[in-house]
Structure formats: structure tokens, C-alpha cells
Amino acid sequence: MIATDVVRVLVVDDHAIVRRGLRAYLDAEPTLEMLGEAVDGQDAVARLTQWHVTGSRMPDVVLMDLQMPRMDGVEATRAIARSHPELKVVVLTSFGEAERVHAALTAGAAGYVLKDADTDEVATAIHAAATGEVHLDSAVARLLARRMAAPKTGLTSLTSREREILVLVAQGLCNREIAERLVISERTARTHVSNLLGKLQLSSRTQAALLAIREGLVSPPT
User: What is the pTM of this model?
Assistant: First the structure.
């Protein structure tokens, strides 16, 4: 896709007022077209599946909120990247914490913009994603740069396996269930849980679950 092409956008946000505002903005931009909207990640995945099956026009870029009911933006981004790898996801959110950024980019997002950014930056991020580039909000980019230069603490000190197990702990799985899910021994699962609690300086699985929810690794229970 070249810069002069019209980029088709699917907006995903659980707040109607945000969707209306984005529609008004996208309708006023000659190089952008709002193809549709979804109220959460689950709705977005379902719409994309339906459009694909029926041969309807597909978006080029999905503009994705993070904190939503049923299926959050990270999970939806991962599902879209798996089922529709040709589509690009740009996260548009109020949350700029490093762990949320890391989770979104790891899931496959091609951009991350904060909702207090000006409209020109939103357009830049959409066009960048459509041309195969990655665009990060300047505040987010600075945060990541500082995080990379700083000693590893907190969640950044965890290995990928420990992060995976933290998510399972937050989902309420016991050591035996974690072992079965990851095809490891229960003793190994118990060791990983103990290690991650130590690195995070936590004393219980409940504290670990609350941390995972606060950092956006899992959605809060409904």
C-alpha cells in the first residue's frame, strides 16, 4: 500500500462517544475511511470473521482500545494476528504503562498511540501500520527507551515462562492445572511460581493475580 491510498479502518472501543468521535475524524480525512466499528475485542474478531467468510471488504488497519469487557485489546490483537495476519492493529488507549505496551506489541500490534495524542499522530500511526511500519507514541517510545536502559525489576525481571505462568496464576489455575496446561511437572510449576513471587516481592498468589490485572496482563473478572 502506498501513502496516497485510502486506508480502511475498523474502530474497536467499548465507549460509544469515542467511536463517534473517531468516526467524525476519519470521515473528514480523505486518506482514511472508517469501514466499521466494534464494541469490544470479541465483537471485532466476529465481524472480521464474518466479513472474511462473506467476501466483504476488509479493513487495512484495526484501531484497537485495550481495556474492554469480554475480550480485551491484547487478546483481540493476538487473535487477529493469528487469523488475519495481513491486517495491522494500532492500539489507541489511555494506558501508557510499559507492561501494557510490551503486551500489545508482543501480541502483534503495529502501533501504540495514547488517546491524548493529536489527530495528526493517530493518522500517522494508521498510515505507518498500513505500509508495514511500526509507530509508537513519543511518550511511549521514551518510556520504553528508559525501561530498556534501566536494571530489570518487577515484571521485566521475569522470564517468558514466568510471565506465562503469572497469567495462569491470575486466571486462577493451581500448580497441577498449570503443569497440565504447559505440559511440565507439577514440581516445575511450583518452582516457577515460587521464583516469580520472589522476583516480584510478593507473598501470595492473590497478590500476583492482582498485579497481573493491574498491569493489563489479564482482564479483571466480570
Answer: 0.66
